[in-house]
Amino acid sequence: MIRFLKIASGAAFVCALATAAYAHAFLDRAIPGVGATVSGAPAQLQLSFTQDIVAAFSSVQIAAVGGGAVPAGKPTLSAPNVLSVTLGHALRPGVYRVSWHVVSVDTHATSGSYQFTVAP
Amino acid sequence: MTIFQILALAAQAAEATPTPPADMGSMPSQPDGIITIFHVLVLSRWIHFAAVFVLFGSSFFWFYMGRERLLAGPGGLPKTLRATTLLLRVAAPVAAISGVAWLAGILANMTSGFSNLADPENWRLFFFETQFGPVSVLRLTLLAAAVVVTLLPWRNRAWFSALLHIGALLLISQAWLGHANEGGEGLYGAAMIIAYAIHALAAGAWVGGLPPLLFACVEQRHFGPEDARIWTIDVLTRYSWMAIVAVALIVASGIANAGFRVAGSFDKLFDTGYGDVLFTKIGVVALMLALASFNRFIAMPRLRAATLCGMKQINKLRISVAAELLLGILVLLVAAVLGITPPPQ
């Protein structure tokens, strides 16, 4: 029993030292930022997630609020947890909504959206 | 309470979590319908876990019970052997079917709909463009191998050894299809995989060993009272030594697994569905441990001291082992839900 308690407490100690890994990928930060106002049209979007993701089943769409979709390339991984999307043309001033759907390396799917503004 | 009511409660728990800021995103909403992707994932995972636990644990049983159990002579358990063989022959195809259903559920969840399963391109991407694709191919190969092995006419140690190893690989490879695969490459990711593998193997040995143990307790009814008492004590002693080691590993690796999931957000555990499911699992495992402790430290000593009333003690033990098995099956349902519930962020 004492040996068992030693093993259990050892495991607990190792875990306490460990940094938590987030199961399921959630949006950590984005460029342009969530709710941010930027001056000048961004050439690409970067979305960083709390976990490594699978590019093959991930997608990002961008559309002007009250307007049409903005053409964009297929998302690629610029880091294991970062999706980059090259925009098809320069964004005009206005509010844009980015919608994303990703699958994390633990097979779980998540999705969400956010807005940013391109200042005149 | 019906299975659908349990699943409805589980779905509520899973959807109640996590509670990240709205901009972080969320799990895709489940389309309306009698059977949702969540139901398919939970049911297929539950059945698959149970079937693979049988493949591994019920095969392993014959290695710590000693060679004489496979024979028809004194101490042999021919009826238990026949029942276990039949169980394994059922478990292999059930594991294969539920394993395929699990993969289909994963793909449907990734692509937000069952209709996307009909597109071969999605399957190509799944198997060849994802980190878990090669593992999925390996698992399908192992499941096919299990079915082929169970169709063979042998019932010897080599047969059990083949199923034991296939079952072990299936349990270990589950790590790449869930939360344990989130640690990435390197030491941290490897530690998560190892902790999961130890947990699954130890739990498989414990719960998967219960069906043949129950068969053996039933078979003792056909022995004389003294033989039944002696052989039951021997079988239970061997099983309980294995179970003591397994439980120690389950608890240690379970603490490690929980630490990996919630180390940075332990305070949020009590307000999330993940916490509810985790505490339910711990509660049911605690009940199993209480029953196992009763068998080991109260019922067995009583049986050792018993004389003519030995058969009555064996009957009580049989009921206790059956109850432990039912609780084990319930734990697998909770584990099936836990694995697809987002931990607190």
TrEMBL record, chain A:
Matching PANTHER family: INNER MEMBRANE PROTEIN YEBZ (PTHR34820)
Q: Does the record carry Protease as a key word?
A: no
Where would one find the signal peptide in this protein?
Answer: 1-23
Q: In terms of domain of life, where is this protein from?
A: Bacteria
* GO terms assigned for molecular function: copper ion binding
Pfam families named in the record: CopC (PF04234)
Q: Which SUPFAM superfamilies match?
A: E set domains
- Offer one example of a GO biological process linked to this entry: response to copper ion
Q: Does the keyword Metal-binding apply?
A: yes
The record's InterPro entries line, in alphabetical order, gives:
CopC/D, CopC_dom, Cu-Rt/internalin_Ig-like, Ig_E-set
Instruction: Provide this UniProt record's keywords sorted from A to Z.
Output: Copper, Metal-binding, Signal
List localization entries: Cell envelope
Domain CopC stretches: 24-118
Its name, as the record gives it, is CopC domain-containing protein
Provide a GO CC annotation, any one: plasma membrane
From TrEMBL, chain B:
Keyword annotations = Cell membrane, Membrane, Transmembrane, Transmembrane helix
| One annotated Gene Ontology cellular component of this protein | plasma membrane
Does the keyword section mention Cell cycle? no
Q: Which residues form a coiled coil?
A: none
Cross-referenced Pfam families, in alphabetical order? CopD
The record lists the membrane-crossing segments as 46-65, 86-111, 131-152, 159-177, 189-218, 239-258, 278-298, 319-340
Q: Which InterPro entries match?
A: CopC/D (IPR032694), Cu-R_CopD_dom (IPR008457)
Q: Name one GO biological process term.
A: copper ion transport
Q: How does it sit in the membrane?
A: Multi-pass membrane protein
Output the PANTHER family linked to this UniProt entry.
INNER MEMBRANE PROTEIN YEBZ (PTHR34820)
Name listed for the protein in its UniProt record:
Putative copper resistance protein D
